[in-house]
Design a protein that fits this description.
heterodimer; A: about 60 residues; flat; B: mainly alpha
Chain lengths: ~60, ~130
């Protein structure tokens, strides 16, 4: 398997994310909008702790280390 | 917003694995933790949508689940990172360019601010309705 396959899967996942995002923005859609997803995570008793930890870890991993 | 842009432009000028990068990254993390402790309710009520909402989270959970699974598969795969890129290895390539790194850093800061805001929003809404 070459890197082309890996990048293709990443591209498909990125496209899927854009499609879900776009569909959630359509009026009358049953999909939650990104802000609602974030609010659901940020108001969960345990999820909110995981969310802040994941956000902090992501920043540290990407910019500091 | 301007503060976030200015901070991202400053932080993007630091180099990973240096003290300045550590400090530039640690400050927003500390700020978000402090703001979350100050602004978020002690006992939050998770956002719940009505019974007519269908499955509002399912598609998001599927996409993010697939991303996590593929990230883990790529991370654990044998071979070079070039053959099995992970999200962080791809973003490392992006971060080599100052302008792109500033954009990524800004998006990270914006997400942190949104997390704090969204976590306290329902409490503020309930408080304003009570008045």
């Amino acid at each position: 398997m070459t890197s082309a396959f890996s990048y293709a899967v990443w591209a498909i996942l990125g496209l899927a994310l854009i499609v879900v995002w776009a569909r959630s923005s359509v009026r009358g859609s049953t999909l939650a909008r990104p802000g609602m997803v974030l609010e659901r995570l940020a108001t969960g008793p345990f999820l909110r702790i995981a969310l802040v930890l994941a956000w902090g870890w992501m920043g540290w991993h990407l910019f500091a280390r | 917003m301007l503060v976030l842009v200015a901070y991202a432009l400053f932080a993007a000028s630091t180099t990973a694995f240096t003290r300045s990068a550590n400090i530039a990254t640690a400050l927003p993390i500390v700020a978000v933790v402090v703001l979350a402790v100050m602004r978020w309710p002690l006992r939050p009520r998770p956002l719940a949508l009505g019974p007519d909402a269908g499955h509002p989270w399912r598609a998001w959970a599927c996409v993010f689940g697939a991303v996590v699974l593929w990230e883990l598969a790529e991370y654990a795969a044998r071979g070079s990172r070039a053959d099995h890129p992970t999200l962080s290895s791809m973003l490392d390539a992006v971060n080599r360019f100052y302008g792109l790194k500033a954009i990524v850093f800004f998006l990270w800061l914006y997400l942190g601010a949104a997390i704090v805001r969204r976590g306290g929003r329902r409490q503020r809404r309930a408080r304003s309705e009570a008045l």
